Amino acid sequence: WHYPLINLPQAWERTTGNTDVTVAVIDTGVLMSHPDLLGRFAPGYDFISDPANALDGNGIDPNPDDPGDGRNADGSSSFHGTHIAGTVAAATDNLSGVAGVGWDTAIMPVRALGAFGGSDVDISQAILFAAGLTNNSGTFPLQPAAVINLSLGASAFSNTLCDAVAAARAAGAIVVASAGNSGSSILFYPAACPGAVSVSAVDINKQLATYSNFGPTIDVSAPGGDLGDANGDGYPDFVLSTGGNDSGGTIDFVYTFAAGTSMAASHVSGVIALMEAVADSKGDDISPDEFDALLVAGDLTEGRGAPGRDDFFGYGLIDAARAVLAVEGVAPANPLPVATPSSLNFGSVTTVSQVTISNSGGGRLSVGVPTVNPDSARNWLTVSAASVDADGLGIYRVTVDRSSVSEGTYSAAIVFSTNQGRLSVPVLMQKFASALSDDAGFQLSLIH
Asked: 128: which of 136, 281, 354, 428 is 20 to 30 A away, CA to CA?
């Protein structure tokens, strides 16, 4: 759901990335042998200086493979960096696993987070390395990263971190960072450092995720996921990516669901890598200042919230197709009808929902009166305009009536006829003979 939400399939029609473009993933390291990441790597480094934190038996070293951090409640490991790397550039169109934003983008795994998190010094040295600058390892990457992803942070201001971000930006790297998951306006560093691209998270409905930080430093938003199953696919509306499971004592290569501004940041890093690939094909690259100018102009996003910039979405929701076209110097030529959410799941309780029809392309999009398919579903499913303009764009109210059907699961589709063809929104609804219990039993909350 999160890739169509940012029009990534349309971007893929123009570029799938370039192996000469590298995204540094500064995180827990990466499972280098994960089958969906094999062949995706540029050489990286491990900058965790404390062996007790590193859990690999030594301090800094050239091996960024993730041995695990044991940070989950059951003692298993997060393999957070592997999840981020998969979203950026997992092998794609290979009939296996998941897709990455940039199929052909290179990943530079840089390890800076361990069992106790990461120190400002270790993270800053990792940033300097990724940017090709002098660092305490005494080594340099074969090629500096065009994009540096920092899905990490803390609320305490750090001169050390912000100085490293400034140095990397001056060297030409675009530094992307997660805005934080405390659901508040508290500043979160390094995302709040001057020069960093701070990313908030949206859910499947393009609304600010319940956990996402907001505030004056937010630059852009991207899919991070949230609770629920609005599209009725039987899975939580989280982001699925590459992962690991060491709860059994050995590391298994798996795929895991996760939600957070960490996931949102990795989407933005992947999209910027696609932009860099287009620029590279023209013998050019994108400087941080050029990226900022395109972002402020609205050329990289779908407008969300207040016009221009606001504290929730920044300059809007990242739009991969618009971003790629912006670097090509081509304005979106054709209208592109988009439904948000792309499908509706009423479950067994909800009776009223809504869907928004918008134009994510260029030119005029006109939408006719929606219909319900099949005709037999009209006895339980109705749709009406709630707040639409003269072209039929806007919010539609969708209602289900369970009184006219027997127990069971029902599916249908709302069909919008447009001047660009038909747009179908699947609908799922259930009816049970008896009410479900609202007792969720005993729950354990871990607050840290």
From this structure: 281
pLDDT category at 443 given cuts 50, 70, 90 is low
Please, which contacts does 291-300 make with residues 24 or more away whose CB atoms are closer than 8 Å? Answer: 291/174, 291/197, 294/323, 294/326, 294/327, 295/197, 295/219, 295/220, 299/323, 299/326, 300/220, 300/271, 300/326
Q: What is the pLDDT of residues 66-83, one digit of tens each?
A: 999 999 999 999 999 999
Please identify which of the residues 262, 266, 342, 360 carries the catalytic annotation. 262
- Annotated catalytic residue within 56, 76, 77, 80: 80
What is the arithmetic mean of pLDDT over 85-110?
96
76 is catalytic: no
The Cα angle at residue 324 between residues 290 and 200, in degrees rounded to 5: 70
Q: What is the pLDDT of residue 273?
A: 98
Q: Is the pLDDT of residue 448 over 60?
A: no
pLDDT for position 444: 58
Active-site entry in 2, 27, 34, 246: 27
Cβ–Cβ under 8 Å, residues 350 and 321 = no
**pLDDT-based confidence at residue 307 (cuts at 50, 70, 90):** confident
Identify the bridge partners of residue 110 per DSSP, sorted by sequence position: 26, 45
Residue 80 annotated in active site = yes
140 by Cβ neighbours in 10 Å (0-12 / 13-18 / 19+) ranks as: middle
Question: Which residue's entry shows tokens 């908030």?
Answer: 200
Residue 426's Cβ-count burial label (10 Å; 0-12, 13-18, 19+) is middle
pTM of the model: 0.86
Neighbours of 139 (CB within 10 A): 11
Angstrom distances, CA of residue 447 to CA of 130, 180, 193, 261, 263 = 33, 16, 27, 18, 21
Q: Smallest Cα–Cα separation from 355: which of 202, 201, 204?
A: 204
For residue 262, indicate whether it is catalytic. yes
Q: Is residue 197 classed as helix, strand or coil in its secondary structure?
A: strand
Residues 224-275 have pLDDT tens digits of 999 998 887 889 999 999 999 999 999 999 999 999 999 999 999 999 999 9
Stretch (H or E) spanning 11? helix 8-12
| DSSP-based three-state secondary structure for 34 | coil
Length of the chain equals 448
